[in-house]
Amino acid sequence: MESLQNNLASYIAENSRLFNKHAERIVYALFGSSWAAMFTTETNLEKKQFYIVIFLCILYLSIEMVYRFIMQHIARVLHKYVRLGKLEPKKAASAWNYISDKTSYILLIKLLLIGLMVVIFGIHYCNLYV
User: Fold this and answer.
1) Average pLDDT over residues 50-64
2) Euclidean distance between CA atoms 19 and 85, whole angstroms
């Protein structure tokens, strides 16, 4: 049973790492493309679309930074309590799993933000060819 839990934990960690890596690349690409396209557009409506995409990119990256900071802080606190003997390792692992499960909705929020950025960015290019 324990090996199964370890395998699942490593699988979750690896896929989470890959999701974050690819999502950040997409966000950076959208940010750079919007920034560059903003200087080549002439109408204010198109510029507003790119401002929205840039704002959403900054919002995404801010959420990511706050999420990582909070999770790192929680992990350090749990580790400190285990090291000092105030918390059993099994209870610390249980607390960490509970917190990780509850924060998994942040992945959905980040995915929705990326989708929204792509749609807004795509609207501009759809309007160019219509």
Assistant:
1) 94
2) 35
Tokens of 43: 């109408």
Selection from 33, 30, 34 nearest residue 60 by Cα? 30
User: Do 79 and 45 touch, CB atoms closer than 8 A?
Assistant: no
CA distance 66 to 55: 16
Closest of 58, 54, 53, 62 to residue 116, by C-alpha: 53
CA 32 to chain centre: 18
Which 8-state DSSP code applies to residue 43?
A: S
pLDDT of residue 113: 94
Rounded CA separation 3/112 (Å): 34
